[in-house]
Specification:
Chain lengths: ~200, ~170
């Protein structure tokens, strides 16, 4: 496995958009097939991912502390946090749905934050082991990210449907913005991370 | 790694036309209706965005609008434009741009996540109110299937090759 040289080491650049391989040279800055900008690796991948990831970390705290929505029934308002909503689902006997929400809106963002953090450490400190497993982890993180939007969409539907003035109303809370920002930031962070960096450190 | 797909261009062309037709009822007609304490209310994709906007959650409203309405629409329109040009062998200097946009936008069109959101919301509401499913929901599910098939029928390598050939 280690005997294989990367395309870059052999003087090739692969276009990010169309996948066309071209020879690395000074003049040749545009892809011959799609005329996109050629970069040997995503530029400033580590710094960008780290910055986006840190902001997501900071926002993850308010997203879980503040109420994500307030349910008003007959004039009595009752704020729900993300976890509160899941507990309410369990109490009403809908465990599978509660599990789904738990995975999508708590476990996935948390694992993404930790996983991308570990990947950054991996590349920065040039860990040599298990490059293949790290790559698989990156793929899972990149694939699973969008499913966290589940909670946001659910709130958008509830807010528009349940709107009967004082009798019954759902109002979205400040955590919704923070949570949406966490999802978007981690998606960008995953996109900015270049998995080929994991393999560049192998000898 | 991906293996080449059969009749990728023809299939993408056909599916994107179907998607373009379905996207109108899915957006305009009510997805779910609710009957609660004598009041009636219908929800569409757009009404969710408006409701969030009215509560001053601009960011969330814009995000929901982009990922559930605008990006799926653009996705289908771009697939249609690209596959139509390739199908008729008509060169166009924007083809490479369109293709690039399509690839970057793919991740942000989240109809299937929205569907899951609808299901969870329905389960939450089912105990306290009466739900009815509108025609829009059927169109939405059909659209979901079409976009899923669209994603699997579109052979990126083949498309880029064709785009490269048409340029010359």
């Amino acid at each position: 496995m280690n005997s294989k040289k990367s395309a870059l080491a052999q003087g090739f650049i692969r276009c990010h958009d169309c996948g066309c391989l071209s020879r690395k040279s000074e003049q040749n800055r545009l892809c011959p097939l799609c005329e996109g900008q050629l970069h040997p690796r995503l530029s400033n991948s580590l710094q960008r991912t780290a910055a986006l990831l840190l902001s997501a970390f900071c926002l993850y705290i308010p997203a879980n502390i503040f109420p994500i929505m307030t349910v008003t029934r007959l004039g009595v308002g009752e704020p729900h946090t993300i976890i509160g909503g899941i507990i309410a689902l369990i109490n009403s006997g809908m465990v599978p749905i509660a599990l789904l929400v738990l995975i999508a809106s708590i476990l996935v963002p948390l694992l993404k934050l930790l996983g991308l953090g570990l990947l950054l450490l991996n590349v920065h400190y040039r860990w040599q082991d298990h490059a293949r497993k790290w790559t698989i982890m990156y793929r899972i993180i990149a694939f699973v990210g969008r499913w966290s939007m589940l909670d946001i969409f659910m709130i958008s539907i509830l807010v528009s449907l349940v709107d009967m003035g004082g009798v019954a109303q759902v109002i979205a809370g400040p955590a919704a913005t923070a949570f949406a920002a966490v999802v978007v930031l981690t998606m960008f962070a995953a996109k900015n991370f270049d998995p080929r960096l994991i393999w560049d450190n192998q000898y | 790694m991906q293996r080449p797909r059969k009749q990728s261009i023809e299939r993408t062309f056909a599916l994107s036309i179907a998607g373009l037709i379905l996207i109108f009822p899915a957006n305009l007609m009510p997805l779910v209706g609710i009957k609660m304490l004598g009041g009636d209310k219908d929800g569409t994709l757009w009404s969710g965005v408006v409701a969030l906007f009215e509560e001053q959650l601009w960011g969330v409203a814009i995000l929901v609008f982009l990922s559930s309405i605008l990006f799926p629409l653009l996705n289908i329109i771009l697939s249609l434009l690209i596959s139509a040009h390739l199908y008729c062998n008509k060169p166009n200097r924007h083809l490479a741009h369109w293709m690039r946009w399509l690839q970057h936008m793919d991740e942000w069109a989240m109809l299937e996540v929205y569907m899951l959101g609808i299901i969870v919301a329905c389960v939450k509401l089912a105990s306290s109110s009466e739900l009815k499913f509108g025609f829009g929901l059927y169109a939405f599910v059909a659209l979901l299937i079409i976009t899923g098939m669209l994603a699997t029928s579109l052979d990126k390598t083949l498309f880029w090759q064709k785009i490269g050939q048409l340029r010359k």
